[in-house]
Amino acid sequence: MTFQIHIGANVRKSAYFDATVADGVRSFSVYNHMYIPGHFGDPEGEYDRLLNGVAQWDVAAQRQVELAGPDAVALAQLLTPRDLSSLTVGQGRYVPVCDHEGMVINDPVLLKLGKDRVWLSVADSDLHLWAAAIGAERGFDVSVREPDVSPMAIQGPKAMDVAAALFGDHVRDMRPFAFVETALDDIPLVLARSGWSKQGGFELYLMDGAKGNALWQRVRKAGEPWNIGPGAPNDSERIESGLISYGADMRRQVVPANPFEMGMGKMVSLDSHDFIGRSALRRIADAGIARRRVGFFVEGSPVTGLEAPVALRRGATDVGIATDIAWSGRLDASIGLGLVEVGIGDDDTGLTVALPEGSRPVRLAPLPFL
Amino acid sequence: MTFQIHIGANVRKSAYFDATVADGVRSFSVYNHMYIPGHFGDPEGEYDRLLNGVAQWDVAAQRQVELAGPDAVALAQLLTPRDLSSLTVGQGRYVPVCDHEGMVINDPVLLKLGKDRVWLSVADSDLHLWAAAIGAERGFDVSVREPDVSPMAIQGPKAMDVAAALFGDHVRDMRPFAFVETALDDIPLVLARSGWSKQGGFELYLMDGAKGNALWQRVRKAGEPWNIGPGAPNDSERIESGLISYGADMRRQVVPANPFEMGMGKMVSLDSHDFIGRSALRRIADAGIARRRVGFFVEGSPVTGLEAPVALRRGATDVGIATDIAWSGRLDASIGLGLVEVGIGDDDTGLTVALPEGSRPVRLAPLPFL
C-alpha cells in the first residue's frame, strides 16, 4: 500500500530537497518538521552501496539546537546525564537527554564548537523547546535557537576516500566524533567523523542553506570514482548495527524508556554533576531496571517492516515490546529490536512477536547483530 | 511532482488510520509525529462538502497534552498570556503559548476538564516537552503527559444535524468551544463544539484508541442522510477564513512571530496574571510591533500552493513574508497569508510576492477573506 506525501507549507524543505529530487528521490518521511528522503527507488542497491561503497544522504532534518553564550556548556551539562567535563572543543559526543522523570526525550550528538557554543544534533523531537525552557527557568545566560545548519552524510567504507578527496588526507586521522570548521571554496561547513550507520563516514554540516545544491553536486562529483550515489538512513543496517532510533525504539509519549533500559547505562554519570533527571535515575538505578534492550530474529517468511510497536510474548503473557523489524540481507533473516522484562534470558524459548498478520516465533539475539 | 510517503516505525499511526485507508485516503502529511490524511482523491468535492455539507476528518494528530494534579490550572495559566480566570469546567479556549522571548511556540485549544485536569489540544510542536519542563522547574504538583485521546472532526453546515443525530438535540445549544464528557455506547469521548474551520462543527475526542474504527463507522453511518464523506483540514478554507496554521504561518525555528504580530493581541493580558514571556511581551507592546498579519490576492494565473515562505516586496525591497497560498474557489482567486511591515497599508500599490517561478503582483486584503 503506497500513499502520496502532501508537500505543503507546514513542513520544511531541506537545503538539499531540490538536489534529491533531481537525483530521483521516490519517498519522503518527515523528521523534525522537515521532509527527509526515504529511498531513491532501489532499496537493495542503496543497502549495498552503504555496505560496500559510499552513499550520500540528505540528513538536514537532523536539526541543530545551538546553545550560545557564557552558560552554553553549563546548560549542555545540565541537560545530559553523560559527563562532559573531559570534552574538548572540536570533539562531539553521543548523549542521552532525559526529562525530570529520567525518561529519554532525545539522543543527540553534542558538538562542542567553543567554550560558549554547543550544538545538539537532534533526533526527532523539539529539543529546542526543552533546552530553551530549562535555560530560561534556571536564569542561564544562553540563547537557544536553531541555526541555518544542514547536515549531509557520506557513509560507507569508501566515505573516507571521498572525504580525503574533498578535504585532504588529514581527514584520515580524525577520531570518531571529531570535527573541524572548514569550507569548500565559499561553502562554509563543519566536517565531522560521524553518521547514523556503523559503516563509517562523515557528516558535512552545511552552514548556509542557500548552498545546499552546490554542496550536494560538489560531493557527488568528488565521489564519482567510488560510485557514490544517493541513499538515506537504512532501517536494515541500523537494526543490524543496533543503533537507537528515537521515535521508533522509544518516544516519551508512546514508548517511554530510561537510559538504563536502552543500554545507555554507561553514559549515566550519577555522581559527577547535576543534571535533569538525576534523582529519578538514581531511584531507578537503586531499584534495578525492569526491562532491557534486545535484538531478536523473527522466524518464518521475511518481515520487511513494522509500522507500530507490538507485543513480545511468552505464551499468552506480554513480556516486552517490539519496536522495529527489517529484513537483513547480510543475515538472510528478519531481525528486530525491542525491550523485554529483565527476567527473560537470551536463551528463553516460547517467545513470539504479535505481528498484525499473526504471531510469529522469535529468538533473542545480543546486540549488535553485526 | 508527487512522492510516496514512507510508512515506518518512527511516525505514529492515528487511531483512525485503517478507517481512512478503507475510505480511500490518497495522501498523508505528518503532524506531531503522526500521519494525518491530506486528501481522498477529490479535492474539489472535499472543499464543497466542507462548505455545503459535512466532512469527517481524522485529526488525531492534534494530540492532547494533559496537565493533571493540584497545580494543573496554575500551570496552564502560566503557559499562556490569555487570562483564564473566568474559564469554567466544560469550556475550551483558544490560547497562544509563548516562550520567554514572547515568540509563539504553539496555539492550542485549552479544555478545562476539571479543577485539576486540563488538556491542551496542540498544533504541530512538542508542547509536552515545554510544559513538562516548566512544570518541573517551577516545582508544580502536576503531571504532564500525552493521554490516549484521538480527535475526529465533523465540519460543515450539516455537522450540527449529524451531531444531533448521534448525541441528541441538546448539542444544538452548546456554545462555541463548550464540551461534555460523554459516550456512544461503550465508546468514551469528549464532544466539543469546535474545529479547525469556520464552517461550524464538532470535535469528538475519542478516549480509547482501540475504538477508532468503531467510532469512525458510527459517525459515518449517522451522517449518511447528509452525505457525510471523508476529508481533511482544508488549505483553501483555512486561508479564506484567516485561521492560523502554526508551522506554516509561524514557527519558532523558521518564522518566529509574537502574538501581537499574529493578530492575537486581544488574547494577551499583560496585567492580569504572571505568564511565561510577559516581560518580553510588555517590552514589545511598549515599543510597538514591527509587522502585522495580512491576507493578499495574487494576480495572474492560479497559484495552488506554497511550499516554503517567500518574500513580499515593494519594488526591490523586502517588506514582509508570504507564508501560505491557495486557490479559493469561492473567490475565484489565488489568496495568501503573511506578515508585512506595519508601514505598509492595505491600499499600497507596487507589492509583489517572490514566487519560485517568478514575481507576481499582489494586493493586500483584510482578514478574514470570507
UniProtKB/TrEMBL annotation, chains A, B:
Coiled-coil segments, which residues? none
Instruction: Give every GCVT N-terminal domain span.
Output: 18-271
Report what the protein is called.
Glycine cleavage system protein T
Q: Give every Aminomethyltransferase C-terminal domain span.
A: 291-369
Q: Which residues bind substrate?
A: 203
List the top taxonomic levels of the source: Bacteria, Pseudomonadati, Pseudomonadota, Alphaproteobacteria, Rhodobacterales
Which InterPro entries does the entry mention?
A: GcvT/YgfZ/DmdA (IPR028896), GcvT/YgfZ_C (IPR029043), GcvT_C (IPR013977), GCVT_N (IPR006222), TrmE/GcvT-like (IPR027266)
- The organism named in the record is Sulfitobacter alexandrii
